[in-house]
Amino acid sequence: MPLFRRGQPPEALSSAMAGVKLGDRVLLAGTDDVRLAAELATRAGLSGRAVLLARDSATAQARATRIEQAGALVEGEHAPLTMLPLDSGSFDVVVAEETLLALAEGDRAAALAELLRVLRPGGRLLWIERQPRGGLFRLVPDLRSVPDAAARERMLRDAGFRGVRTLASAEGRTYVEGIKAAT
User: Fold this and answer.
1) Between β-strands 75-78 and 162-170, what pairing exists: parallel, antiparallel or unpaired?
2) Strand, coil or helix: what is 61?
3) If DSSP codes are grouped into helix, strand and coil, which group holds residue 132?
4) Cα dist. 174→5, 7, 119 in Å?
5) How far is CA 111 from the centre of its chain?
6) Tens digit of pLDDT for each residue in 34-43?
7) What is the DSSP code (8-state) at residue 19?
8) Which ranges in 48-129 belong to alpha helices (H)?
9) Less Cβ around it within 10 Å: N or C end of the chain?
């Protein structure tokens, strides 16, 4: 009997928060997390569609290969988040993990507008970002300038998302979702 019980991997919470179900069309916007991408692609199943977006074709192909080796089917696409080569309304769920904060403010607004465009009416965006940790066992706060969950909610509202809310902050990650209006 092990001394310490091993908990769920962080990808389990992230995939649960995404709410992907069989037949969903899922866009994975820039994530490098193979376990999360494989889990979401598997949940969408053969009747759904999973597209992994990367900056260049080599990265897209390498990530798609790693996900397929993990047992899931995914299409690798490459494009900047500000100009997606995807049809409007073509996805049910978009998962943007650790990609949006890396963009400059103007590019982030353009990327959010593009992600909103490719969502179907009633579709949802899940924005996952790691929370900065403080030093010395987290007793000293991390003073880097990182937008908090409320600022991320404002960014989503400004881009046109509705029903914006922070779902959770757990396991070092914050989950913020926004819905594309049905009309």
Assistant:
1) unpaired
2) helix
3) coil
4) 24, 18, 21
5) 13
6) 889 999 999 9
7) T
8) 57-69, 105-118
9) N
